[in-house]
Backbone:
């Protein structure tokens, strides 16, 4: 027991450094992934067949191929195209694009779940399609989008562990280094699992709080 405490005192500061990078990668990818997802969702529900086809192809590509492959592809392919980026932004690009495909489908499903009569009523009042989406349809999707969006962000947090494949010193990579140097597999990965659990439970709790707030406002 004493040995475990001593090891914990040694490993926790290093894992915290990795956790900070994990959170930064998650936040960056969540922001840009949400923006990309919103764009893809609007393209998917557009009446323009070309935009719809492009969005459908994007979703199929990024949902149909492994995220690890996407991260490694961007890390190794971009330099061959003359684009040299550090590992962190490269991984963030791959994670954002991948997350954008899933978030796009979440938003599309949420928007399409709203009664079509809402859009028809807004259009009958003289609103343009875009204005009706912004003022009438999208605001009604918040509560429906919250649970699946939180699930996606929680999954994104765990998916950042794949960035260790391109040597980013996030939580998983630092854990692997500790295992290689100390051979204490169980102790290291127990604390690593605790770190991921803290983040996912915090996200779930935040979602529950926001959901209650929205219910109270309604």
Residues:
């Amino acid at each position: 027991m004493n040995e475990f405490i001593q090891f914990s005192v040694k490993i926790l500061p290093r894992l915290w450094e990795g956790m900070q990078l994990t959170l930064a990668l998650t936040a960056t990818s969540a922001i840009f992934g949400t923006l990309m997802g919103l764009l893809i969702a609007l393209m998917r529900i557009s009446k323009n067949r070309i935009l719809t086809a492009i969005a459908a192809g994007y979703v199929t590509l990024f949902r149909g191929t492994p995220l690890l492959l996407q991260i490694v592809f961007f890390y190794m392919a971009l330099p061959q195209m003359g684009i040299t980026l550090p590992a962190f932004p490269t991984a963030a690009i791959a994670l954002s694009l991948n997350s954008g495909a899933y978030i796009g489908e979440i938003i599309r499903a949420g928007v399409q779940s709203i009664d079509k009569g809402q859009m028809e009523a807004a259009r009958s009042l003289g609103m343009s399609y875009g204005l009706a989406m912004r003022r009438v349809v999208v605001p009604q999707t918040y509560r429906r989008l919250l649970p699946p969006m939180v699930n996606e962000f929680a999954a994104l947090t765990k998916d950042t562990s794949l960035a260790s494949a391109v040597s980013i010193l996030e939580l998983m990579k630092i854990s692997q280094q500790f295992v290689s140097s100390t051979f204490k597999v169980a102790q290291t990965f127990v604390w690593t699992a605790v770190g991921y659990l803290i983040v996912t439970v915090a996200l779930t709790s935040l979602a529950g709080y926001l959901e209650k707030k929205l219910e109270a406002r309604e």
User: Anything to note?
Assistant: The two ends are 52 Å apart (CA to CA).
